[in-house]
Specification:
Pfam families: AhpC-TSA. It comes from Rhodanobacter spathiphylli B39. By secondary structure, the chain is α/β, with parallel strands linked by helices. It has one domain (30-172): Glutaredoxin, CATH 3.40.30.10. It is 36% helix and 15% strand. It is built from 7 helices and 5 strands; from the N terminus they run βαβαβαααββαα. It has a 5-stranded mixed β-sheet with strand order 3-2-1-4-5.
Length: 182
């Protein structure tokens, strides 16, 4: 079942791929909690690349990022975690966290992304190789959570490559932080 703002974000006991506990919300900061498909997903790996590239600017504006993959720790380390990331990556091999947040499955929407997002698919395939062809049917989803653990924005992907636009996330950042950076 989908979650909506301003509901309380369901609690998750997550650890990163190195065994460290992950805090979903911290005082004075927003968290982008991103649910990813398989660790070999080309769309997911391209998004991880984007988040890595934008992390410094987003963090300076008060945003933490947590990425949760429906994959084993070994697969997350092999694909998304093969390079150091400035934010935590978590493995959810049973998809339990995905279920708690109402992440959906759809073969049709997966195929739609493959057909309509060819440039992103190809960029992602350069990152993961042919392993990216063998992914499941989970859809992506993103949640912006405030420091009190409330969902500010819930974004369920319309297809396997659809994510909350980073411009939308920036709009949700506190105005006081925006003035300091500008």
């Amino acid at each position: 079942m989908r979650l909506f703002a301003p509901a309380a974000a369901p609690a998750l006991d997550l650890v990163d791929i190195h065994g460290r506990p992950i805090a979903i919300h911290r005082a004075g900061r927003l968290t982008l909690l991103s649910f990813f498909r398989d660790a070999a997903c080309p769309f997911c790996n391209f998004r991880i690349y984007e988040l890595t590239s934008e992390h410094a600017a987003l963090a300076a504006r008060g945003l933490d990022i947590v990425a949760v993959f429906s994959a084993s720790q070994a697969d997350v380390l092999r694909f998304a975690g093969h390079r150091p990331r400035p934010f935590p990556l978590a493995a959810d091999p049973t998809s339990r966290a995905h279920e708690i947040y109402g992440i959906e499955r759809s073969l049709w929407r997966k195929l739609k992304a493959i057909v309509t997002r060819v440039p992103t698919l190809l960029k992602g395939m350069r990152l993961v190789g042919l392993a990216g062809l063998n992914t499941g049917n989970l859809m992506p989803a993103d949640f912006v959570i405030d420091e009190h653990g409330r969902i500010v924005e819930a974004y369920y992907g319309r297809d396997a490559g659809d994510r909350i636009p980073l411009e939308r996330v920036q709009q949700l950042l506190p105005a006081s932080r925006l003035r300091k950076v500008a």
